[in-house]
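Loading example: each entry is read as two labelled lines plus one structure line.
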Amino acid sequence: MNDNPTQQTIVSTLSAIVGETHVLTSPEETRPYCVEWRDLYFGVPAAVVRPASSEEVAAILRFANETGVSIVPQGGNTGLVGAQVPDESGREVVLTLERLKAIRDVDREGATLVAEAGVVLEEIQKAASEAGLFFPLSLGAQGSCRIGGNIATNAGGTGVLAYGNTRDLVLGLEVVMADGTIWNGLRRLRKDNTGYDLKQLFIGSEGTLGVITAASLRLFPAPKGRAVAFLAVEDPQTALTLFRRFSQTAGSALTGFELMPRLGIDFVLRHQEGTRDPLETPYPWYCLVEISSGRSEAEASELMETTLEAAFEAEEVLDGAPAASLAQAAEFWHIRHTMSEVQKKEGGSIKHDVSVPVAKIPEFLRRASAAVTEAVPGARPLPFGHLGDGNIHYNVSQPVGADRDEFLARWDEVNKIVHGIVGELSGSISAEHGIGRLKRKLLVEVKSEIEIDLMRRIKNAFDPNGIMNPGRML
Amino acid sequence: MNDNPTQQTIVSTLSAIVGETHVLTSPEETRPYCVEWRDLYFGVPAAVVRPASSEEVAAILRFANETGVSIVPQGGNTGLVGAQVPDESGREVVLTLERLKAIRDVDREGATLVAEAGVVLEEIQKAASEAGLFFPLSLGAQGSCRIGGNIATNAGGTGVLAYGNTRDLVLGLEVVMADGTIWNGLRRLRKDNTGYDLKQLFIGSEGTLGVITAASLRLFPAPKGRAVAFLAVEDPQTALTLFRRFSQTAGSALTGFELMPRLGIDFVLRHQEGTRDPLETPYPWYCLVEISSGRSEAEASELMETTLEAAFEAEEVLDGAPAASLAQAAEFWHIRHTMSEVQKKEGGSIKHDVSVPVAKIPEFLRRASAAVTEAVPGARPLPFGHLGDGNIHYNVSQPVGADRDEFLARWDEVNKIVHGIVGELSGSISAEHGIGRLKRKLLVEVKSEIEIDLMRRIKNAFDPNGIMNPGRML
């Protein structure tokens, strides 16, 4: 391995591979690839390179592997743990997959779709829909995140309850290994027991093992009817009871169950233009519930109605608005989907993305909020998310009027409090966002030595020169 | 590493760990662990060792790893590819998990169950049922196969259509690594993105990476009603049309769709006591269809009835028997479940366990049967299995009256014909049974060099001394 190629060598070599116009170096051009959208991470790259094919990706990695240049793969740059932005050394190359944007194939009969890594999630949803099918991955960033990044982070989102995580939607992968070898594992079978299931390693590996360049994905029958309701409840315990009621009556037809606190609604109404409160008066907590039917609109509505009726009778629901139209259903979901974004407008926000066994959610919320507000008086917990999966985004906004930086300086302290409670409840410190740079130090604290050791062995086996997203995750 | 400990050393060391009575060496005692039930593999072990805890497993592996003794892990000895029986060298130690048979925990609220590797699948089904829940893994050998083996082979079975493979049912694992370290990865979360998903490597690894000693499993709401029907169809193409009809109307309520040829029914009726033909006259092909409802018996029946009515009208179904009782439904399933076993009584059978994209099943069956009977006149193809998953057990029974050994000598030749067609249709040579010894040579033929290389890197990283089930899979 030659040590330290100069930036000039890096740029000229990359230019020879992808063409000069696709190697960016000026601060103006590279900035969009180097700033994380919540302003938590900012880096300075040696270059941003924009390959257009798996072969170009392979050539880039061969060069990097031979010369020891670090590669930071990037999809839509919507990641939440800093894995996709370069560090400040000026020595890392950001490899964006944005030009690998072909949907290579849609197989209606087999209900599969093959997309390149740079396809925006929403485009995949659309392509599936045009084929009369359904791709269930759905999350706030779907208009800009790219499927390669979704897979590299095993994205969760609002469809997990009924359809599973991204992992469950992937049938096969094409991956460029650290040494530039291309592995074509684009299978489309539901059953294939021929050796270790290698794709599983790359799913959720955050760019540390290779570069995902394409994927074959599972599509599903499109629901024929959906019913959405925005419901007010007294507290998380009641929300849990309500969730159980819906689970029992709707079974796998329950395709969404999200929990939101009043504060989140306030933030959205205040900062997101065109939104309005679905209910007339404020309530402490809300559930957004979605039921889908494979058979008819009527069946979904009926199931929603009868379940709601029983819930009102049992006094689990304080007030509720069933969506009267598709447009209204979309409005309700819009409130939920913008709840991450709007927090920025309220100053600093200390983030957690935790999961606990579903039944423990009320206890977790009670204990975490008490502990956090005791430690930081005036801090405003804004826990929201996927109650049905046991996954809560336990975010804490700064006290009104406090200094942003001063508040954010307490990040680790607040993390420690929240993650301590998560640990006691056998939960996870990263339910869906991953580790990246944000939780790298935490990882070694929460994992056993043997688990970290096994991870390192895999890393060394796949990327012996350590060029793939170093300093992220492991 | 000391070379070649004597059998005496092996036996005395193992005895010190598990007690003398749990180290078997006499041919009478070891035989049940060394014969594969279809008589395809028979081996001679240095010993069969029966540890009672993960710690004992760890001590055995430490010794094996230091001395280079090969370990063959075994569950219920129902595997179909020879991975679980020792070779004929007399130097391998069979490590049976049969004494690790505790169900450590059933969490009704969280819908999870933690079982040790040696628990028989049926026991897990029962424990789930007693908690008012449901464990969907279901296969012919469920009365004797053990959950550790199910996981090590990523077993499929008849529940895959609605619930996925064993992989999809596992939340966490406890594994003893080759060097005797115990990894406690018994998580119970639906979402956990903290590093590489290590458990995925062990699922389907056929004992080549470590010994699975316990697992946390997902349970599901118990279906409240089931409707089963035994339907006659003209050919696989019509069966596929019928499958699509049921998929469309029942969606995820379609929990079973199996294809069987007349020959299979004949074999069952001839060799399995107490079975009878569900229909009055014979037909060329049959579908066993199951619909489950999370809400009621009535809903399942109604859905079955209306779909069947439409199918009869469209002349897709020639004749049909909806099960009138739970007992009759069980009878229908019994026919399907014994279809593997009874083939033994008809002489030699050359096996394939293949998958192709679902839409390609009719073409596959047509081409395979033409090619096989041309090569071996009089051979009797008996293709049956999970049509909805694209997974067919393409078995071929010997011609009536032919010599068993002579027929079986053509195993590789017939394999080559069938797998060639599978390859042309982008299928898999092992959909659910795995590789083991049976398909080890095939594996390197159907996989790319880079994929085999990646698998070897993982093997070396986890089992550098190569003591874990050597000669199987890789």
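Chain A touches chain B through 80 residues (CB under 8 Å).
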